[in-house]
Write a structure and sequence with these properties.
Blueprint lengths: L5 H19 L23 E4 L5 E2 L4 E7 L3 E9 L8 E11 L4 E6 L3 E2 L4 E2 L2 E4 L2 E3 L8 E8 L2 E11 L10
Antiparallel strand pairs: 1-2, 1-4, 3-12, 4-11, 5-10, 5-12, 6-9, 6-11, 7-8
Length: 171
């Protein structure tokens, strides 16, 4: 579909009118034109959301678990890009309370998934601490493992945030 601007259409109409005048000596013409241009700008969003092992999407909240265990325990969930821009990184924070016999850890499995039966990552494990270079496509997910040390009434919470500088602009 070819579009022309209002000045170009006006020139074309005037050209026809002048040609008619030159050939017949008289002419009558009316021109009515409306030029409308619309452009819709999208809104870019950058966001990541944690998803619990049961599939609960934790929009705006941390992935928190209360537990007591005499052995190291593993929980498997994911992080999902819920924004409109691809993510190059995110910032993760682990907080704890209670009596824990060790430090908890959060690890992503990039280009693979965590296998709960064998506790192995089929891709590349990446520690989620502070700013983590974890690329996630729009709508994409990355498998995450929480490692919980032995504890007596312990609480571990993993949170994620994304800054504008951690999102990639699309062209």
């Amino acid at each position: 579909m070819t579009t022309t601007s209002f000045p170009a259409r006006l020139c074309a109409v005037l050209g026809v009118v002048l040609a008619a005048c030159a050939l017949t000596g008289t002419a009558h013409a009316e021109a009515d034109a409306d030029a409308v241009a619309t452009s819709q700008a999208g809104t870019a969003r950058w966001a990541a959301t944690l998803v619990r092992p049961d599939g609960t999407v934790l929009t705006g909240s941390a992935w928190s678990t209360n537990y007591s265990s005499v052995a190291t325990t593993y929980l498997y969930g994911s992080v999902r890009n819920t924004g409109t821009l691809p993510l190059a990184a995110q910032t993760y924070a682990l907080t704890t309370s209670g009596f824990l016999l060790g430090a908890p850890a959060a690890t992503a499995c990039v280009n693979g998934v965590w296998q709960a039966a064998t506790n192995t990552c089929t891709g590349t494990p990446v520690t989620l601490s502070g700013a983590a270079a974890l690329p996630v496509a729009v709508g994409g997910t990355v498998s995450v493992r929480l490692t919980l040390p032995p504890a007596l009434n312990g609480t571990v919470a993993l949170s994620v945030s994304v800054a504008r500088s951690q999102a990639r602009a699309t062209s």
